[in-house]
């Protein structure tokens, strides 16, 4: 018990000893728990001298008003003037200035308006009761007014913090990456608790490190990092203004989600008393809880995204293995069978049969070559290992080179070419664009009937050349116009040869040239592939040719 309670009510120990009789009682005092040293911002405030000056000024003004009206009104009305002044002081100042205004008002009323005038002496003892009632009423009214004003201020601050918390929560709900949500959270938190803010997140070793600060870096050294790590491990508030590690220069709050601690929030307030009350500290903890949940949600989202990427990679790997194994096995079986027949019965076979077997070997070897080249090209394009060497080239030369390489594939397909004589030179990597033409033409051969025509045309419009390759195949199913450019997608013809990389390579090559590639169904049946090639700022002139 405190000293005055022991004096008034007595000591429990003394009463116990008196009533113990013959029982021996031993009293062992416990160690007094050392109270933490309070930081400067929780110690009593220095006097607010301007507020005290305001209190005296208001009392002086009330005295002047009462002096002017004194000949015409009674003393009770003058008391109302002073009480009104006390209420006015209470709406602007704290308890100290208001109490001073109450006491000085009673003194001024006695000195100026109670006989004998201009003296503190009291001739009638009834006036003492008046003074006492006046002082009590003034103190009660001022106390109630100060309390109401404090409650109103607290309500406004609470409303502002709740609004900031709601705005932060709403913005965090639309933010997915950790750095973005930390920046958002600290920005909203600084509006309520101005000062230096920082978020500590654990690194790969499990030690916390500064991940984000706002608006500037916290004063940080090894001891501050140690406090932050202690808070992360023990999930308890510590640092400035607390009983745990009070020597720290900032207040540290744990960021605890549903699965444990995810980090630490450090706060060094610019306004020392912004975290003075338990309510303010609770508001800071509420912000910290929202930040912890947002960080946890973002990390779960990142984990889900990584899992989705791994699943997609596994799906692509399985598709690649399935397609490659099928498309390698078929030509290899043909090559093996034909070469075995030549080795075992070459002399017994006729010349026509031997030529047919040799052509079969050559055809399947070319097919293997295209397959392997497509795989290598896709790998290089995705890894950024393809360097584009652009030179001004005539498009008809690139088309002719592609047709030459596919001569055996196109032997039973009439190819109709429509290239204007005045078609400008185009800045391209001829090797890559030639591969685009080869892949599209090979695709047309795969999905169209023997004897059906293939049309190749080009036209210049503005600073762009558009190339078009059309066939009379079955066309696209609804929605496949864009999907055909996805890796390993082969449309409805799953039995067609290839692994579904050719068109994906084509779009990637056209993209690195700065153009666009798309596909659509052809009127009257079939498909048409189009791609654009930018001409740049200016084109070189084509020298005239004789004849």
- Proportion of beta-strand residues: 5-15%
Q: What structural class do helix, strand and pairing data support? A: alpha+beta
Largest sheet: 5 strands, antiparallel
CATH architecture of the largest domain: 2-Layer Sandwich
Q: Distance between termini?
A: 121 Å
Order of helices and strands: HHHHHHHEEHEEEHHEHEEHEEHHEE
Broad shape: elongated
Return residue spans where pLDDT drops below 50 for at least 5 consecutive residues.
Answer: none
Q: What share of residues is helical? A: 40-55%
Written account of the structure:
The protein has helices at residues 3-9, 12-18, 49-69, 75-92, 95-113, 126-172, 178-192, 222-234, 278-345, 351-383, 395-405, 430-446, 480-483, 502-512; strands spanning 195-202, 208-214, 238-239, 251-257, 260-269, 391-393, 415-418, 426-428, 454-461, 464-470, 517-521, 527-534. It is an alpha+beta fold. The chain folds into 4 domains: 3-40, no CATH class; 49-152; 176-305, Beta-Lactamase, CATH 3.30.450; 385-534, 2-Layer Sandwich (Heat Shock Protein 90). Strands 2-1-5-4-3 form a 5-stranded antiparallel sheet, with helices on both faces. A 5-stranded mixed sheet has the order 7-9-10-12-11. A hairpin with a 5-residue loop joins strand 11 (517-521) and strand 12. Helix 4 packs antiparallel against helix 5 (95-113) and helix 6 (126-172) packs parallel to helix 9 (278-345). The longest helix is centred in the middle third of the chain and has 68 residues, at 278-345. The radius of gyration is 45 Å and the shape is elongated.
Topology:
Elements: H1 3-9, H2 12-18, H3 49-69, H4 75-92, H5 95-113, H6 126-172, H7 178-192, E1 195-202, E2 208-214, H8 222-234, E3 238-239, E4 251-257, E5 260-269, H9 278-345, H10 351-383, E6 391-393, H11 395-405, E7 415-418, E8 426-428, H12 430-446, E9 454-461, E10 464-470, H13 480-483, H14 502-512, E11 517-521, E12 527-534
Parallel strand pairs: 7-9
Antiparallel strand pairs: 1-2, 1-5, 3-4, 4-5, 6-8, 9-10, 10-12, 11-12
Helix pairs in contact: 3-4, 3-5, 4-5, 4-6, 5-6, 6-7, 6-9, 7-9, 9-10, 10-14, 11-12, 12-14
